[in-house]
Amino acid sequence: MKKIIISLILIFSLFNVISTRAYSRVDSLENLISHSSSKIIKKEVFSYGHFYSNVSNKDILTAFIQDNFKDKTFSLLESDSSIVGEYKSSINPITITVSTSKNSKTSKYISVFYSHNMTHENIINLRENIRKMILTFDKNAKVSSQIVGKINKNLSKDEIKSLISSMLSNSSVSFNKDYEDSSVSFSGFTNDLHESISVNGKNINLQASGKYSKTDKCTYIWVGSPIISTEY
After folding, report:
1. CA 201: distance to chain centroid?
2. In this structure, is residue 20 part of a structural domain?
3. Domain count, the chain
4. CA quadruple 78, 82, 87, 89: dihedral positive or negative?
5. Could you list the residue range(s) of the whole structural domain that residue 26 is in?
6. Which of 62, 102, 154, 199 gets the highest tally of CB atoms within 10 A of its CB?
7. 17-54 pLDDT per residue, tens
């Protein structure tokens, strides 16, 4: 399972950005990634919230699972400051984490990472369902979602850059080109998506990235909002 990135904003502080502009409209992440000619293989949602409670992490997690996923069996891994519940499934694995802040025993965080390999599932519905679960703890809960596409060929970085540029040229995104050692990444903003984060005074609510996997012998394309929240 891909590692969840908790520090979402830190990702963008490392980017060297070049401003460009695109025109048209983003109807959904599904429509956007369809312009990359990749096959959608996975839809993922990550949501987290901060709250205060004297209840133990284990009791909070147990009650949360019972309220929202009582038909699923989770394995639990507990440490001094956190507990992780994992539902292992080839179709829709789920990871739930409840942790205690270092500064206060009553200051807590809860996060849900939900992945679904059934590509007909609507990402907006998945996103709202997970958000509602976290809203019971934090009315300002944050949520991000992404879609993963797959192309069964080895694309070079230049080809990936051209592919993502073409994909975003069909949208109304004001975007930035970011370069990394092993992947190509773009981030930007569109009025068609509601969630956003502020980085260095700029609003960001869309990220697209591509990378060739030597292990899987294919190229993966990620599209996420407000950013991609898994390691790639």
Report:
1. 22
2. yes
3. 2
4. negative
5. 8-42+147-225
6. 199
7. 333 333 334 456 777 787 778 888 999 999 999 999 99
